[in-house]
Design brief:
This protein is mostly helical and about 375 residues long. The protein has 16 helices and 4 strands. Helix 4 packs antiparallel against helix 5, helix 4 crosses helix 6 and helix 5 runs antiparallel to helix 6.
């Protein structure tokens, strides 16, 4: 609307879009919390103390090692660099064609993505939709936004060649995904296909429920979301990714506890204050092994009752828990476990699951000096 020659068309376009824009605003309050969801977002935004410890809130760091990733065309992590280049080109085109609204959208999306990796997907959508439209229009119509019938045939061979190259590239990327190559080569905590990620403590939680282990249950930050879904609301979790209502201080407090030996006074004080009788830790090599596992296995105050390739459970050594410890207690030095049913078969997924099982087992044996 800043330019007289485009104003009438822009106003007409805005009038057509106005009902839908209003509907999107109304749709945001159609949730169980109503407008209160905005209060929660504001409260969450005010708490930034844990940002440096949550990978999704980290910034895009630029150094020689990271930049070399852009040249590895089979590494999905390179995509963000290519998108940044595409956004820069589209931004220049937007300025050239005096489409400042599109330029602002691209600049803001790029800055937000570079500041917080959580927004890379949103950034990709903006670049593809807005940037793609700008580049296409500039190639076909030239510097003016209005359609002009010139230049289309000159670019047709290039367009066909680009589509063929893109299809070949997508075929390689898809094959890397379904064959699990990308997930294993990049040390991901997920695999291709349906089902829960391999590092979730599925068998440990089944054991906890089947044996009716006493509450309350202490868990690490990374496990909180899964345990809320799997055990809640009957068994509340100690902490999860919601800064509201937990608060940033509890996040740092649990980190300090995990660095202390199990018989330290701080552990006993926390158990007394919160009524903790069961500890559930991750032993998966990427998301877990954040505790001195060998020390917990030899602790006087906490006794091991469960251990597999992704999780360990300890019960507080009290007179009330003595019968459970006597019945379920294990020796970490001689405990054995077997791979789960997901590792059987000759499929790519089963082979990847088996690889993770052996790698996790090796990490646990190393930590326990077995």
């Amino acid at each position: 609307m800043l330019f007289a020659g485009r104003r009438a068309e822009a106003i007409a376009r805005f009038k057509r879009a106005a009902p839908w824009l209003a509907a999107t605003i109304a749709a945001t309050v159609m949730n169980p919390w109503g407008p209160g969801i905005y209060r929660a977002l504001l409260r969450q935004q005010q708490v930034s103390g844990t940002a440096e410890y949550v990978g999704e809130w980290s910034a895009l760091r630029i150094n020689s090692a990271i930049l070399s990733q852009a040249l590895r065309w089979r590494d999905p992590g390179s995509a963000v660099w290519w998108l940044l280049i595409a956004a820069a080109l589209a931004f220049a085109v937007a300025l050239w064609r005096k489409q400042f609204g599109a330029a602002v959208w691209l600049a803001v999306a790029a800055c937000v993505s570079a500041t917080h990796s959580r927004f890379e997907a949103l950034f990709a959508i903006v670049v593809v939709v807005i940037g793609g439209s700008l580049l296409e229009s500039a190639i076909i119509h030239g510097p003016e936004p209005q359609p002009q019938a010139r230049g289309g045939r000159l670019w047709r061979p290039l367009a066909i060649a680009s589509v063929i190259a893109a299809l070949a590239f997508v075929a390689v990327r898809v094959s890397d995904l379904i064959s699990e190559r990308m997930y294993l080569a990049n040390a991901q905590i997920s695999l291709f296909g349906t089902g829960l990620s391999w590092w979730y403590p599925q068998r440990a939680t089944e054991f906890l429920l089947a044996q009716h282990l006493p509450g309350n249950v202490f868990n690490e930050f990374s496990m909180g979301g899964y345990l809320t879904w799997r055990l809640g609301p009957a068994i509340p979790d100690y902490i999860d990714g919601r800064i509201v209502p937990f608060g940033a201080e509890l996040f740092f407090h649990q980190r300090r506890l995990l660095q202390l030996p199990p018989d330290a006074p701080e552990w006993q004080q926390e158990a007394d204050r919160r009524g903790i009788n069961t500890l559930l830790f991750s032993t998966a090599r990427f998301a877990g092994l954040n505790i001195p596992l060998a020390q917990f296995c030899q602790s006087r105050e906490w006794r091991p009752v469960y251990l597999d390739d992704v999780a360990a459970i300890f019960i507080r050594n009290t007179p009330q828990n003595a019968p459970l410890i006597q019945r379920l207690g294990i020796d970490c030095g001689s405990a054995t476990w077997q791979p789960g049913p997901e590792t059987s078969g000759s499929s790519w997924r089963a082979r990847a699951e088996l690889y993770n099982y052996y790698a996790n087992t090796a990490a646990i044996n190393y930590v326990l000096e077995r």
